[in-house]
Specification:
83% of the residues lie in helices and 0% in strands. The chain contains 4 helices and no strands. Helix 3 runs antiparallel to helix 4. With 150 residues, it is mostly helical. The longest helix has 72 residues. It has one domain. The termini are far apart.
Length: 150
């Protein structure tokens, strides 16, 4: 008998859940639920809230502003604009930091190339100096030798 009751209860419960989901989707939200969205969004904008993000706050504010007759519409709109601007600023900041890192790396590579070029130039000049000294030594020896008699 219990099995029969459970078998009949399962489809009935599923139908109730389906009806509740459809009704909650189609019916306007209650005022308390709408205000709850607003205050949750404000909570997500708090920088000390470690489990929240600006992205989630924007989503909540979008849902709040889509509700019929929100009581904090002007504040929510301003907060949404500020949150979007904050997101854009974060993207620009990240791009700027990446550009600075790339520029520093390029400068470092250029400096290393210059150092390598300078080392090569110093080696070349040392070789030239050594050859010039050898030539000078040969000339000194020729001048120091007594002239040969014919």
């Amino acid at each position: 008998m219990k099995r029969l009751f459970l078998l009949a209860a399962v489809p009935l419960a599923a139908a109730c859940v389906h009806a509740r989901v459809r009704m909650s989707r189609d019916a306007p939200m209650e005022s308390a639920a709408v205000d709850s969205l607003y205050w949750r969004a404000v909570s997500h904008l708090d920088p000390t809230n470690a489990r929240a993000s600006t992205d989630s706050a924007v989503i909540l504010l979008d849902r709040y502003l889509a509700a019929t007759n929100p009581s904090h519409k002007a504040e929510a709109s301003a907060l949404r604009r500020l949150a979007r601007d904050s997101q854009q600023l974060a993207r620009v900041t990240a791009a700027l930091q990446q550009a600075r890192a790339n520029a520093a790396e390029s400068r470092q590579q250029a400096s290393e190339r210059r150092d390598d070029d300078n080392v090569k130039e110093v080696e070349r000049l040392k070789d030239e100096l050594a050859k010039a000294r050898e030539e000078l030594d040969r000339i000194k020896k020729r001048l120091a030798a007594p002239p040969s008699k014919p």
